Amino acid sequence: MLVVLTLLAGLLAVVLSPSASAAVPAGFTDTAVITGRNQPTSVTFAPNGQVLVTEKGGKIYSYASLSDTSPTLVADLSTQVDNYWDRGLLGLAVPPSYPTDNHLYVLYTYDAPIGGTAPKWNDGCPSPPGATTDGCVVSGRLSRLTISGGASTGEQVLINDWCQQFPSHSVGTLAFGADGYLYAGAGEGANFNAADWGQFGGSLTGDQANPCGDPPGAAGTALSPPTAQGGSLRSQSARRTAGAASLDGAILRLDPATGLGAPGNPYAGSSDVNRARILAYGLRNPFRFTMRPGSRELWLGDVGSGTWEEIDKVPDTAAGVAQNFGWPCYEGAPAQGGFQSAGLDQCSSLYNTPGSVTAPYYAYNHASSVVTGDGCSTTNGSSITGIAFYPGGQYPSAYNGALFFGDHTRSCIWAMMPGAGGNPDPNNSVPFTPAATPVDLKIGPNNDLFYVDLDYGTIHRISYTAGNQAPVARVSATPTSGALPLAVQFDGTASSDPEGGDAGLRLVIRRRRQRNGGDSEPHLFHGRPVQGHPDRHRSRRPDEHRLDHHHRGKRAANSEHAAAGDRPRLRRGAHPIQGR
Question: Do 438 and 489 belong together in one domain?
Fold first, then answer.
């Protein structure tokens, strides 16, 4: 938690970061272990202990360890990357034998159409064509970077595909499986404001309808029901009887040396190189997926449209069976109304063939809580943006095999607890932690859960320590601003003890006298040396603000200080109390 109290130029301000309101279960601690990144999108833990962080704009940083405060810039792909809305550098994978195998794999939105030269749009979209009118068409790239001396010395493009007309549902996760093959996922790049079957584009001068050239018409020809196979229906392109398959809305299983489809894939014998890459399809935006430890299962979160978020399961990645999860003909288990009513052949054939679509393992409604009373707001929508299995470790044994999943829009992470046979039980999810804007969940050192906070530029670690825990200080001030002298009421009643002994907590606020006899400013002090004031140490000084725990004698470790004359410590994306 960051609590900052600042007195500067006659203005009192209190700033709380999102972690100030975090409430993990008893015994757990949520700590920001990497800070100061610019819109981080993923974190990857390499076999040699390195921690690799991607930024949405195209940069990759390497930390020697979690204690490293001077990261190395490994690669800067910002010229190639289209950093706009949901587009950007979104996936990174490290080979199992890294750094002996001195390559890194990246998946990003390429700032040009398929076969074009970046930068085309320079991280924007003018009008025409207009971001959500006709769309600034880009593509996706999967590349292999050669690493020498800690930095990239070259990029080998393995795939340039994934036509994306509109600025959402772009690429996503890139990961190695236990089988040594490379797995990649991406959305369908279609219109998110209306049912899109290839009719959009061409409304403004100089723009093309159906710019991705989906069948049955060519680029420049708007498609119409019942034969249209464009827009969101690119997710069903593995079923096309004419024309090449698209990689949009699919999970791929690839040979990492070539980017071609891996042996044993469902369509391994196809003459269509794209179709041979596809493992599963019928997905809207499978932004994050994970492999279940000790199995060949792949689990993914598919970001929904108007009603449902899904967790989907590929039961065996080596079985040679393609899973069709149904989008856009289905959303969640029900048929999707906008596409059903359009009378599209691609959807009607699924509706008329029971068992042709794999239903979600779990789905939650946009209007409902995942867990009753979880405190995760549904006001702004929903977007499932992180998923990870807990393999066992320092957490309580009840979490062994649990499936963690996070929602960027609801700002929460939950745990789906194991049930019969050790499988995640859809009827037994529990709140795990609030998280401001999670976009990636990973298991890292000590088998702890880590999450990436996009908007606040941080990587968080959730660790567990059995036994007596320090209390969590939460302090509010009323008023939060005003000219000096200013009477301020501090309230610490929201502070808590992880073990539930809240009745023994009290907030102690004292003022000290300056050497000239005047009153000094109050400080929030947490029992460590104050930066810039080496004479203030762990002893109980009279200028101390602290959270005491009478019953156990514990001290809060989660509050920060700011001395008079310091500049306000406003982190990127932080919100003043009065603006929340």
Answer: no
